[in-house]
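Hi V.,

Quick status before I head out on leave. The structure for the redesign project is tokenized and pasted below; the design run finished overnight.
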């Protein structure tokens, strides 16, 4: 494997995976429509192609010319709330447009296809931690669109022999030295806490403290973005196609994340308890044994302290994110 196409390489996870792959000596081409990504997030060493996955001819053309060994697909919309209001946007992009990329990969003989899937494909699971055999019952169009594309890949592997890995991220967080999280608008917990600490927001709203959890706030499995990047590289060499859950196996509540951020920064977070946010499962924790075994994945930054510290450093270095 040498030449890698990274669709969505201008987004949060895609930009950091691009950087990680470039550091390992791969040749990276980033394809991005810049709908939510940032041109400045594209690593300077990567070739950049501005293209929309909806443009099937252009995607085929890029793949023919690039002769890629592998495709990593991060180019999706990912706001759960928005998906409940505009499902069409999610099914068109995350499913139909993704099929253009998968078809081009098949036609051009790509040897591995790595897909950004999500814990949202599980909905509200009946058992915890969530393993690959846990039933997938999404509760929003975002999760459903990702699950549909997992199924497309399954059938493409059966019928066309396309080797794939669907990596189901739990809560991606943290930063590398160069790249970090800059969503507009921002809806994720850790960047919102850090913005509050930097005075960019008045306060953090804790969405519900009456859940059936030890401190009443929701529990999530926060996984360092560089550990996710490592899993993508390992997935290129998986012996066979498969789906893998990626988390640390440690659940942390919103309140525990606030305490960890206060410890890292030495500052107090101004917060207020607000009503529950619609569609938030109380607890999501991954079992990632399969990835450890089959992909030889070895996460290295499992503490919340490490994750938040890396994000904090990035926030201080780039106070306006990717905005010039
Ligand atoms: N939260 C707050 N206040 C905020 C923001 C978040 O209390 O201002 C809470 C949420 O209620 C949740 C936790 O912090 O309990 C984490 O919320 P995030 O928005 O950071 O992340 P989610 O767990 O909602 O979402 C993540 C991914 C999604 C994916 C989902 C799977 O970002 O893409 O996990 O369930 F769909």
């Amino acid at each position: 494997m040498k030449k890698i196409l990274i669709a969505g390489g201008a987004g949060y996870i895609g930009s950091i995976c691009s950087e990680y792959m470039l550091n390992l000596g791969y040749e990276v081409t980033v394809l991005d429509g810049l709908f939510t990504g940032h041109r400045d997030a594209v690593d300077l060493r990567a070739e950049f192609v501005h293209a929309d996955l909806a443009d099937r001819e252009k995607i085929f053309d890029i793949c023919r010319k690039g002769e890629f060994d592998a495709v990593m697909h991060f180019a999706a919309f990912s706001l759960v709330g928005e998906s409940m209001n505009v499902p069409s946007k999610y099914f068109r992009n995350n499913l139909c447009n993704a099929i253009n990329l998968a078809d081009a990969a098949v036609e051009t003989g790509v040897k591995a296809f790595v897909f950004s899937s999500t814990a949202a494909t599980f909905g509200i699971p009946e058992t915890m931690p969530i393993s690959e055999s846990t039933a997938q019952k999404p509760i929003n169009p975002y999760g459903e669109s990702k699950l549909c594309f997992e199924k497309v890949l399954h059938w493409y592997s059966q019928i066309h022999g396309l080797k794939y890995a669907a990596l189901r991220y739990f809560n991606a967080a943290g930063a590398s030295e160069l790249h970090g999280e800059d969503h507009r608008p921002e809806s994720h917990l850790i960047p919102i806490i850090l913005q509050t600490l930097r005075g960019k927001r008045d306060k953090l709203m804790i969405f519900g403290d009456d859940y059936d959890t030890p401190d009443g706030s929701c529990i999530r499995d926060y996984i360092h973005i560089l550990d996710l990047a490592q899993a993508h590289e390992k997935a290129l060499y998986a012996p066979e196609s498969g789906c893998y859950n990626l988390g640390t196996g440690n659940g942390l509540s919103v309140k525990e994340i606030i305490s960890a951020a206060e410890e890292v920064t030495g500052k107090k977070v101004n917060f207020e308890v607000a009503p529950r946010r619609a569609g938030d499962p109380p607890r999501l924790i991954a079992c990632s044994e399969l990835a450890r075994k089959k992909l030889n994945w070895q996460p290295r930054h499992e503490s919340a302290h490490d994750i938040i510290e890396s994000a904090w450093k990035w926030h201080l270095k780039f106070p306006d994110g990717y905005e010039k």
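Above is the designed sequence. The longest helix spans residues 87-107.

G. will cover questions while I'm gone.

Best,
W.
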